[in-house]
């Protein structure tokens, strides 16, 4: 399936009260319209739901500030359901951001068919499988955006979410296209960089907007993306930010240890959207 079908599939994942709760909490935290829900949940109805709601709120505000105590409370409340529920948080947190981004750029309307409701709720699919085996590879198969810009966007997201794993990786195609540690070192101070192009800076501003202020994307930020990127590139840029933000799942659960203790490890994304290391 393509990205649009995979995104619609994520929105249609039912999940009961907990999914409805995290969709309400994440959207309310972001100040964005929530994803459709199968059942209405106005507030936590139990101690477990209160723990989930607290975690979901911090997941949306700044995932890097989730600590061991909060993680322990979530694991104690959910047990072996924890990973699946946190994956649902990722969907509830980032699909509304994608909607806001595409609307601000005035592109990709065909990816938002679910906005007015879900035709049929999916009660059987596993959220983790839908994300990691379906949606993320579908985004990785997109090829409108150049590899170097994609890598700069990925590394900016890694920095903003404090993902140690993501920071330890380097995409090989981007390195061959001009990527370097010197260039990547400019990402943290990209506004003043003399190495990064105006196009790169426009992309990085947009990354920051989706991560930190998705409900208030500066019109000038959106205009710079429209001016510097084709519609297809702008759509891919938006979905790249969401794909990279799947690192929030690992960061929130303290599972983002780097793959190497020193230096970085290279990887390549294959034509079918899979990540191959080494």
TrEMBL record:
Organism encoding this protein: Mycobacterium botniense
Name of the protein in question: Carboxymuconolactone decarboxylase family protein
Entries under SUPFAM superfamilies matching the protein: AhpD-like
InterPro entries membership: AhpD-like (IPR029032)
């Amino acid at each position: 399936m393509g990205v649009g079908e995979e995104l619609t599939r994520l929105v249609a994942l039912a999940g009961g009260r907990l999914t409805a709760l995290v969709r309400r909490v994440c959207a309310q935290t972001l100040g964005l319209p929530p994803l459709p829900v199968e059942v209405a949940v106005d507030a936590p109805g139990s101690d477990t739901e209160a723990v989930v709601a607290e975690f979901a709120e911090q997941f949306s505000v700044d995932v890097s500030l989730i600590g061991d105590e909060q993680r322990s409370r979530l694991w104690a409340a959910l047990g072996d359901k924890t990973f699946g529920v946190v994956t649902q948080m990722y969907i509830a947190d980032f699909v509304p951001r994608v909607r806001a981004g595409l609307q601000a750029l005035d592109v990709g309307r065909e990816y938002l068919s679910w906005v007015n409701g879900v035709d049929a709720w999916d009660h059987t699919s596993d959220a983790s499988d839908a994300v990691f085996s379906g949606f993320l590879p579908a985004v990785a198969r997109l090829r409108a955006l150049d590899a170097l810009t994609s890598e700069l966007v990925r590394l900016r997201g890694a920095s903003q979410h404090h993902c140690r794993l993501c920071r330890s990786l380097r995409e090989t195609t981007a390195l061959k296209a001009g990527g370097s540690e010197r260039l990547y070192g400019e990402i943290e101070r990209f506004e003043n960089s003399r190495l990064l192009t105006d196009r790169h800076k426009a992309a990085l501003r947009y990354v920051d907007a989706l991560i930190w202020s998705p409900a208030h994307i500066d019109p000038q930020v959106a205009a710079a993306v429209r001016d510097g990127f084709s519609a297809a590139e702008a759509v891919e840029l938006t979905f790249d930010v969401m794909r990279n933000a799947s690192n929030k799942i690992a960061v929130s659960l303290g599972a983002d240890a780097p793959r190497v203790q020193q230096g970085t490890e290279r990887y390549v994304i294959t034509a079918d959207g899979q990540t191959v290391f080494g």
